[in-house]
Amino acid sequence: MRKPRWPKVNSRSIAALVLAVAVGGVIGWLAHVPEPATEPPHYAGKLAPIQPPARRSVEPSPSSRDSAALNPAPPVAPTAPSLAPEALKDLPPADVARPHNVPPPENGAPKAAPPWRRYAIATPPLDGRIPIALVIDDVGVDVARSRRAIDTLPAAVTLSLLPYGAAIDRQAGEARARGHEIIVHVSMEADSRAVDPGPNALYTDLPPDEIARRFDWALSRFSGYVGFNNHMGSRFTSNEAGMRVVLAEAKRRGLLFLDSKTAPETIGARLSHEFGVPFASRQVFLDNDSGAGAVAKQLAQLEAVARRDHGAIAIGHPHDGTLAALAAWIPTLAGKGFVLVPLTALVKAPPGAKASAAGG
How far is residue 117 from each of residues 111, 156, 254, 345, 358, measured CA to CA in Å? Predict the structure, then answer.
């Protein structure tokens, strides 16, 4: 049998064949590579939240609760607790720039009226009745009770909001929308340092620029206010150097000062007159004892003071007992010859200031 004869294949032909197969394989593989995904692959595990960068904050030194010999400051009640530490960490540092209490300009120029006039609410006609101004302090920290005060108290009741309250700019806007006049409750140093009056409080041993910076922080937390009053502050309101820094700035900004009068030796009235700052002073504390019965007795004292002085200013807090007592007392005022007025109605304007359109 004759053996088949295979064609002769030289080495060059073999090399060409191998190269052709390799190239063809690469081309085929590339043709089947999947397109890149348009979304990241699904992650079944729980992603850790992004942590915000650490913030610097101005931590005040320890201080104490106010005490006044004649009329002690109201104690901190369990119904209106301070913010928890986890809430305080979200406060911005004192050097963060915030919008201040100035409305948008009209026709390229700001309004001429200072904020204590611009944001004042209208005073109701007195018609021979005796005016009483109620100020509710510490609004903004206990959100539920602050909400009750904002929603249920008459618009003539002035609300003083702590600058470190929860979402305080929103609460201030809601209070304004309900018709309330609002002020800033500025934390200040008390007689001793056993109790902290709050973040960025004003202390007598701080340099003037730091006092001004902390005061600016408090005033930058919300807008629409007519002025401020002191939270605690029996030591600070008796300190001339510190109060000069604060009242000079109040004059520059056109704000009124309500002295909560937590110490009989306060110099608020004297320096306010010197600087030409609109001024008022608290005459009665309503709720050193926040039980409804005790508050009712203080309201009777308020009536007596108002009759004697032809008007009076009282300070209370959004405690359950206080709000309950006010709900029962306010409807009786007209029959007794009293009328509720906003704080600005009883503020002493600086010399030369024109009377407000509202009659304050």
Answer: 11, 15, 9, 10, 9
